[in-house]
Amino acid sequence: MIIEEKNTNGESNFGEDFAVQITDPMLYDRLHTLSAEYSVSTGLLVNIAIKRLLEDVDFVRNLRAGKLELE
Hints:
By secondary structure, this protein is an alpha+beta fold. It has 2 helices and 2 strands.
């Protein structure tokens, strides 16, 4: 199922809705603790974590290719 979400900037985000089973109990507990502590959904935390992971992978790939992006 394709879904549309509004982020805090009012922009639309389109994505595919799917489920992932978290098999590490410590990770599961940590995720729910952070969700309660910061009053945000676990889905938002998971999306942020995945986005950060992909950005890190792209950064490492660019370093290997000799590309350096300075901000």
